[in-house]
Each structure stands twice: as structure tokens, then as C-alpha cells.
Specification:
By secondary structure, this protein is of the alpha+beta class. It has two domains: 12-158; 205-336, Jelly Rolls (Sandwich), CATH 2.60.120. Helices cover 21% and strands 49% of the residues. The protein has four helices and 18 strands. It has helices spanning 73-78, 150-156, 160-199, 339-360, and strands at residues 12-15, 18-32, 35-46, 51-57, 62-69, 92-107, 118-126, 129-135, 140-148, 202-212, 224-230, 235-242, 255-265, 270-285, 288-294, 296-301, 307-317, 325-336. The strands form three sheets. Strands 2-3-4-5-9-8-7-6 form an eight-stranded antiparallel beta barrel. A hairpin with a 2-residue loop joins strand 14 (270-285) and strand 15 (288-294). Helix 2 runs antiparallel to helix 3 and helix 3 packs antiparallel against helix 4 (339-360). The two termini are 24 Å apart.
């Protein structure tokens, strides 16, 4: 079998203050959801006859030291393997049950098992620490244990060079975990930023404005929407202008109606942030004719400075006598700008896990 740890039979070390010798190894495997999970139980005997187990779980990369504890085996078996009553009086709560298959056995062990044997196990916690239990039809053992670092285990058996390498590996592992947490937090912030830009939208202005042609002397309207309080970065403003301009008719010549939209600041100076047209046009060219219409325009802008703004509306037509009044509906909404930063953060975080992080493991 392929060993999971550098500990070998015959090594001498110190556990729980006692001089011990490693006597045997049992390697288990458990298959769950298509994956194999491995762990090793390393049997050791102290000079005074006490028996200890070193458990290494490859999945969690964790060492645990165990010492056998007496318990009521008859009650355990008669209860259908549900009640564990240790002699130390502790109350045990079972947190995991399973069955492991023996993947290999080396050296001397205190139970009659061999490769391919199936052994049931329990992981549990109690008021006096953590517990592990193994049993089959021939034996049942309960152990109390405590987690120890791999560095301490290697040092305990004189593997100081490996212990130093392991210390650096664990330090690097912690560093990567911290980086992972930071990247995950960045991904969450980026995702929330993008989501909020679509979900958390607030309408700050909405009105219907009556606009008539500049050339017309038959009506008198302000042709202006506002005042409107616009926020600056990190907010983006969406201005939507809608109007059903009257149809224009002609016999063989071009005619049109249009409404220009312009954003101005509090000094009534154009900001160049927005300027576009609504129009209804009938055109004639080269013996062909047609109609083009744009009744709705929506545009996202970011103003340099937050403050008071106005929307000016300029209506024109190809006929100076046209006195049509155009009803313009204006909606102004703000939302958090998703913009480039959030997208870049999201893409960078995903790339980190897909490419860079996996290559560093």
C-alpha cells in the first residue's frame, strides 16, 4: 500500500510523556459519492505497556492522538450500536458513522483484521474531548483523543528536517487560506455590486412635459423639466424620454417633426452628457420614400458633480405653421454603477480559482 505519512514501523518517539515504539499500521479507505477517502491508524506501545494510536486523516490533513478507553461493550451491541457508555463517565454525542475498508496492514496490531476487511467506525465528542470507535463482529475499541499538529508528531519521532518543511508548508497553507477568503469576499462584493446595479434602482424624477414647436407662436410652454437632483459617482443615472410624435403626411416631399433633448446644469449651461432626438420623419429620395420613427430613447450617464440639473426640450418641424403640442414623458432613475470595477473584480476572482490557485496547490 502507498503510505500516507513518513512514520515507519520501529521508529521510537515520545507520546503523552511516554517513550513509545511504532508497532503496526492499518490503512483504511472509504468510498463516498464516487471519491475515495483515506486514513491511517498507527499503533504504538510505550515502554510501560500503555498503548496509543496515531490517526492521520488525509482528507482533513489532521493528526489525532488516541488512547484506549474502557466502555460497556455489551450495552453498545445490544443497543444496535447506538449507545456508547465510557467508563470515565463522559456523555458521548455521535457526530459521524461509517464503514471503512482495510486497504492494507503492516506490522503488529492488537486485533485480527486483514486487507479488504470491513470495519465500522464512529466519530464522537464528549465533555472530556473527542472520541473515536472501531468495531466489527470480533472486536470493539473506544478511544479518547486530541488533535496534534503534524509538526509536533514529526518532531516527536526525531524527523526534525521533515518537521521544518511541514511547518513551512502549513504556514503557506494558512497564507493561501487567507488569500482565498479575501478573494471570495471580493467575489461577493463584485457580485452584489453587479446585482445591485440591476435590482436596486430608484426613480428620482418622473413627469409629463408639454412641448410645442419653437417656430410656433400659438402656444407658450416652458419646454424644460426639472430641477432634478443628480448624484455623482459611484451612481449612474438613466434618463428615459418617451413621446408619441404626431404622424406627418406629405405628397411627394419630405416632412419631419423632432424633439431634441439636452441636459443642463444649474447655470443652464449644456453639460454634453446627453443630447439626442426623438423624431417622426417621412423621407423621399431617388423616387423612393419611407418613414422613420424614434419614440423612446434611454441613456445612462454619470455626471462629474452631483447637484441640480435640468432637461431642456426643443421641438421642431419642417412646417413653421405647425402648432402641435407634444407630450413628453421623462423618467430619471439612479442605481449603483456596476461599471468596469465590479466586472474586473469578478473576472479576476474567477480567474484566480480557475487558473492561478489550482496551479499553486
Amino acid at each position: 500500500m502507498r503510505r500516507l505519512t513518513p512514520l515507519k514501523i520501529g521508529m521510537k518517539g515520545k507520546l503523552f510523556g511516554a517513550n513509545v515504539t511504532l508497532k503496526g499500521i492499518i490503512q483504511y479507505v472509504q468510498r463516498d459519492d464516487g471519491d475515495n477517502y483515506y486514513w491511517e491508524n498507527i499503533y504504538s506501545v510505550a515502554d510501560n505497556g500503555d498503548k496509543y494510536w496515531i490517526d492521520y486523516d488525509a482528507y482533513s490533513d489532521q493528526y489525532t492522538l488516541y488512547q484506549e478507553v474502557g466502555f460497556n461493550e455489551e450495552l453498545f451491541r445490544s443497543s444496535g450500536f447506538k449507545t456508547v457508555e465510557p467508563e470515565n463517565g463522559d456523555y458521548i454525542k455521535i457526530i459521524e458513522k461509517g464503514i471503512g475498508k482495510v486497504n492494507g496492514v503492516e506490522g503488529e496490531i492488537p486485533m485480527q483484521i486483514q486487507k479488504q476487511s470491513r470495519v465500522a467506525f464512529i466519530d464522537a465528542v464528549g465533555g472530556k474531548g473527542q472520541y473515536s470507535m472501531e468495531w466489527d463482529d470480533q472486536f470493539a475499541n473506544l478511544y479518547s483523543g486530541q488533535n496534534v499538529t503534524s509538526v509536533n508528531i514529526l518532531n516527536a519521532f526525531g524527523l526534525h528536517d521533515l518537521a521544518e518543511k511541514e511547518r513551512k508548508r502549513l504556514k503557506n497553507k494558512i497564507r493561501w487560506k487567507i488569500i482565498d477568503v479575501v478573494v471570495i469576499a471580493t467575489l461577493v462584493i463584485a457580485a452584489l455590486g453587479i446585482l445591485s446595479s440591476y435590482v436596486f434602482t430608484r426613480t428620482i424624477y418622473e413627469d409629463d412635459i408639454a412641448v410645442c414647436d419653437e417656430a410656433s407662436l400659438l402656444c407658450d410652454y416652458n419646454n424644460q423639466a426639472g430641477p432634478i437632483k443628480l448624484p455623482s459617482f459611484p451612481f449612474v443615472t438613466r434618463i428615459t424620454v418617451n413621446s408619441q410624435l404626431p404622424q406627418v403626411y406629405t405628397k411627394g416631399s419630405e416632412v419631419w417633426k423632432s424633439v431634441a433633448v439636452e441636459l443642463t446644469d444649474s447655470s443652464k449651461e449644456p453639460t454634453n452628457a446627453i443630447y439626442y432626438d426623438l423624431y417622426n420623419e417621412y423621407w423621399v429620395e431617388g423616387g423612393e420614400s419611407g418613414r422613420e420613427t424614434k419614440n423612446t430613447i434611454s441613456k445612462d450617464i454619470q455626471v462629474v458633480e452631483g447637484g441640480t440639473y435640468y432637461i431642456n426640450l426643443y421641438a421642431e418641424s419642417s412646417t413653421n405653421y405647425d402648432a402641435d403640442v407634444h407630450n413628453i414623458h421623462i423618467t430619471v432613475q439612479t442605481r449603483l454603477a456596476y461599471s468596469t470595477p465590479f466586472v474586473v473584480l469578478l473576472a479576476s476572482g474567477i480567474s484566480y480559482f480557475l487558473f492561478f490557485r489550482n496551479n499553486k496547490k
